[in-house]
Task: inverse folding
């Protein structure tokens, strides 16, 4: 997956000549999303409840990541519910 490219735009990082990173709570950002979009990230050293995305992202791209994270979590939740609803192998004769 790839985020939108915005040629000709000046990022905040370029504007201020220093890195601008996104800090997101794990409640809202899934590490699988970050891996799928090939984004550099790390756990926050001060609070492991937060992830730091080490690349500037515009608001549209940020929202796309949050939406992807919500969808991935929703899919995992559905899969878990289905798995619990299925009979276990010990229940099958």
Result:
């Amino acid at each position: 997956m790839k985020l939108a490219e915005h040629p000709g735009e000046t990022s905040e990082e370029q504007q201020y000549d220093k890195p601008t990173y996104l800090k997101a709570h794990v409640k809202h950002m899934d590490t699988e999303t970050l891996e799928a979009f090939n984004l550099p990230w790390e756990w926050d050293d001060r609070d492991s409840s937060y992830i730091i995305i080490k690349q500037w992202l515009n608001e549209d791209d940020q929202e796309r990541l949050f939406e992807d994270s919500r969808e991935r979590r929703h899919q995992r939740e559905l899969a878990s519910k289905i798995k619990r609803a299925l009979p276990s192998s010990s229940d099958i004769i």
